[in-house]
Amino acid sequence: MSGIVEIAKKAGVSPATVSRALRGLHHVNERTRKKIIEAAQLLDYPIRPDILPANSKMRTNTIGVIAPFISRWYFSQSLAGVEQALREAGMDLLLYNFAQVDARQRVFQQKKLVGKVDGLIVISLPPTEKEFDQILDLGIPVSLVGTLNNRCSCVSIDDVTGAEVATQHLIDMGHRDIGIMVGQNAFAYNFEVADQRLSGFKKVLAENGVEFNSSWQITADFDSHTSELAMDEFLRQKKLPTAIFCESDEMAFGAMRSLQKRGLRVPEDISIIGYDDHEYAKLVGLTTVAQPVQFLGQLAASQIMARIEKPESAIAQIKVPTSLLIRTSVKDIN
Prior knowledge:
Helices cover 40% and strands 16% of the residues. The protein has three domains: 4-47, 434 Repressor (Amino-terminal Domain), CATH 1.10.260.40; 62-157 and 294-320, Rossmann fold (3-Layer(aba) Sandwich); 159-290, Rossmann fold (3-Layer(aba) Sandwich), CATH 3.40.50. The chain has twelve helices and twelve strands. Helix 11 links the parallel strand 8 and strand 9 (271-276). It has helices spanning 4-11, 15-22, 30-42, 73-88, 104-108, 110-113, 129-136, 159-172, 193-207, 224-234, 249-261, 293-309; strands spanning 62-67, 92-97, 119-123, 142-145, 153-156, 178-183, 217-220, 243-246, 271-276, 287-290, 317-319, 323-325. Helix 8 runs parallel beside helix 9 (193-207). It is elongated, with a radius of gyration of 25 Å. The N and C termini lie far apart (75 Å). The protein is an alpha/beta fold.
């Protein structure tokens, strides 16, 4: 591998100037810095991605992933799928995670991304118009997981249809008094899933002549802890539904723990159906709508890599089907 002295000779500058330029220091004019970078590239010298010009075509062999959470099941599974696909292709993953909402703006800033990644995957986080403009201006392939936008490649499921399937199963099993546990609307993240699944739930109730009872709508976060607390409060009602559709399996786990504390049985007293097919769902016999989350991540990574190799290839909008997995948590009361 060539060193700083060889680069300096080729660029016609001093080794000290090369050192400053390649460390990203400001005491080098842009014209000289460009000559040094070009010389370093010709000599196969490793260059920090953040000092490359915005229009540089040099590959970083790295794909950026933006995700608001990494500990929650959906996001960790998506990341696992992305990482597997990239690892098999010999590429790296650079994660941009922000648990705090006020960090979102910093993550989407171009200066954090320019020259560092060859492509960008955004997991279950619909970018605002301003954010979309910022990331598209990078001139790199972009893929969204869990949401749709016709300006870039996307991989998702149909959350409305999945909720319709879950609700119809409860009705087919004879249930007419049906509640729903919905995820909180996190406006700062622009999450769409909660409203889409609620929409599918209401649609099937209406189609089957079943009245939607707003007092049987339980609001929690997409985790078992807040769902257990919300269910504790809900169970104080005098009249309870015979079945509850939970918008995620983790919410279902919390609801089931709450029922157990009250001495109520699933499904004998209240049937529960979930959404996701979390790895623990089978262990507790949870009937659920399964979505292949790791596969979504793998597809998104494949989309990005395909467009890196062939930038002129068409933008793909892929919807992956869900499936109903019938276990023991829903009672037939026909």
